[in-house]
Amino acid sequence: MSLVSHHVDPARILLASLPFAGHAHPMAALSHELVARGHDVVVHTGAKYRHLFGDVEQLPWSRDFDDARLAETFPAVGDGKGVRANLANVRDVLVGTGAAQARDVLATEFDLVVTDHLAFGAAMAAELRQVPWATVAVTPLVTSGSLLRALSTFTADPMFNRMRAEAGLGPKAGALEAFYSPDLVVAQGVPALEPARTPPQVRFVGRLTTPPSAATPEWWGDLDGRTVVHVTQGTLETGAGDLLRPAVEALAGHDALVVCTTGGAPPEVLGPVPDNVRVAAFIPHDLLLARTDVMITNGGWGGVLAALEAGVPLVVVPGALDKPQVARRVAQSGAGIVKKRPTDLGKAVDRVLSEPRHRERARALGRDIRAAGGAAVAADLVEDLLRRR
């Protein structure tokens, strides 16, 4: 699907992404689409994910970090668990690097900014230069139940406004929502997954993704003719004890074949596994989910959207940050069930397998996600903003 497109002159577009896997991959999908249309795209992201964007001009991320080792650069984040760690993540990683991001971006010229909604520096640079900008919401839109919204009045607004002052801008109310473009918010997801009304500038595009690689593990043929349960913790919260090990223990001896991905950690992190379990560091979701019957996840938005696009129902045991909001969306949509803790996962899988309504809702949402158009429609919307401004 694509919007009706009219000619737009090539522009120099600054595209910014936080150096997290769940942010860089969807932003890279949009970048490739804009480059294919003849635009001069300049990318601002961390060194770890620059390769995703291909042969384009890249700006250095001066306060760089490895998303798999956040505590090495930001000690207060610790293991990433609990309210204090979440606040440290916002304060030190997101807000604390914002002014430096803006300085990085202001080192070059641009006609338009397209920014991951948590890469605050690029939005501030656009405001300073008075050029149009578009937000890409790669994680769920902020709602009244989110951590930042709840803390906005007493904590987040002063924190964000200190960052704005450091970048040379005046204060704004609304914390995170103040960093949504007033002109265009390109949102991953579909309206049926939103629990609340969205601002008028929001446009849903389904899922932003690039074509998968063809790499599969040597045991790939073991999936043939089997019920498959996929277990993933994504690429940020990768402690094997959080969800992977409880799922392996709960599903040992189950009729299903259990496929665990470690988010980049060596498969050996799980130690010896039962005969019905297979482990890999990473398998492209678009390959694995086509052969999956149920996915167990900690609620990463990209993974959940991938599962729903493939019509796969879910068991969600939410992790930190935005993941409780993702779990809420899954529960309200009927496409799966939510567990507060990783207990009785075997019973949860059996419940999802035995109740067709979960798969039916997942398939319906999958049709909506595919129809929303992905990167092609996102690029149409960006080009429409260029024409309007």
Automatic annotation (TrEMBL):
Q: Where are the transmembrane segments?
A: none
Q: Which InterPro entries match?
A: EryCIII-like_C (IPR010610), Glycosyltransferase_28 (IPR050426), UDP_glucos_trans (IPR002213)
One of the entry's Gene Ontology molecular-function terms is:
UDP-glycosyltransferase activity
Entry superkingdom: Bacteria
Q: Which Pfam families match?
A: EryCIII-like_C (PF06722)
Give the GO biological process terms: antibiotic biosynthetic process
Q: Where is the Erythromycin biosynthesis protein CIII-like C-terminal domain?
A: 249-372
| Keyword annotations of the record | Transferase
- Protein name in UniProt: Glycosyltransferase, MGT family
